[in-house]
Design goal:
The complex is a heterodimer of chains A (111) and B (114). Chain A has 111 residues and is mainly beta. Helices cover 0% and strands 50% of the residues of chain A. Chain A binds chain B through residues 4, 6, 31, 33, 35, 40-45, 48, 50, 58, 88, 90, 92, 94, 97-105, 107, and chain B through 4, 6, 9, 32, 34, 36, 41-46, 49, 89, 91, 93, 95, 99-107.
């Protein structure tokens, strides 16, 4: 079954804790991306990775970190430095230059 | 600075009629444009795209028009169906060193009434 999986679907975190969101793909796509969506807003790019062992900051990288040790995986860590972490987080992949395909998302709520 | 804007937060259309969703951009370096459809609590689904070398692209009920001089694109859905009710995002890419970076609009909520 091919696709992009994100886990968990819902995540709750206490203030001050780090949390890691998972994104796995078996599409053999080189590039992977993390976005966040806030109510009434579009998607904003956090980090992206074009190849294994390389990643770049997006527009709102502060308070986040990523790793790309395997082609299939691009985990996102939301650190305690992120001031407003409650949001819907979306992972995407792409094979060619521009068309990105999205996973189902993770809703993170900070209590 | 919002480089991609969808100025209509919502649109309501009768089933069977045409839905027209609009998107404006300010960055003249954008050369590839996409439309995504999104249901609540789900990831966006790719609908249709257009390169800046074209002014129209069709796929079934969906047609995207690009007017480069006006920095404007639109998505036409004909005929509209209740299942089309969702949030629609336009996105743009400038390629080159910004390979893979998409800039999204704020989204337009489309409601198609039976």
């Amino acid at each position: 079954d091919g696709g992009i999986t994100q886990s968990p679907k819902y995540l709750f975190r206490k203030e001050g804790q780090n949390v890691t969101l998972s994104c796995e793909q078996n599409l053999n796509h080189d590039a992977m991306y993390w976005y966040r969506q806030d109510p009434g807003q579009g998607l904003r790019l956090i980090y992206y990775s074009q190849i294994v062992n390389d990643f770049q900051k997006g527009d709102i990288a502060e308070g986040y970190s990523v790793s790309r040790e395997k082609k299939e995986s691009f985990p996102l860590t939301v650190t305690s430095a992120q001031k407003n972490p409650t949001a819907f987080y979306l992972c995407a992949t792409s094979r060619d230059v521009d068309t990105q395909y999205f996973g189902p998302g993770t809703r993170l709520t900070v209590l | 600075d919002q480089q991609v804007k969808q100025n209509s937060p919502s649109l309501s259309v009768q089933e069977g009629r045409i839905s027209i969703l609009n998107c404006d951009y300010t960055n003249s370096m954008f050369d590839y444009f996409l439309w995504y459809k999104k249901y609540p609590a789900e990831g966006p689904t790719f609908l249709i795209s257009i390169s800046s070398i074209k002014d129209k692209n069709e796929d079934g009920r969906f047609t995207v028009f690009l007017n480069k001089s006006a920095k404007h694109l639109s998505l036409h859905i004909v005929p509209s169906q209740p299942g089309d009710s969702a949030v629609y995002f336009c996105a743009a890419s400038e390629g080159g060193t910004s390979y893979g970076k998409l800039t999204f609009g704020q989204g337009t909520i489309l409601t198609v009434h039976p």
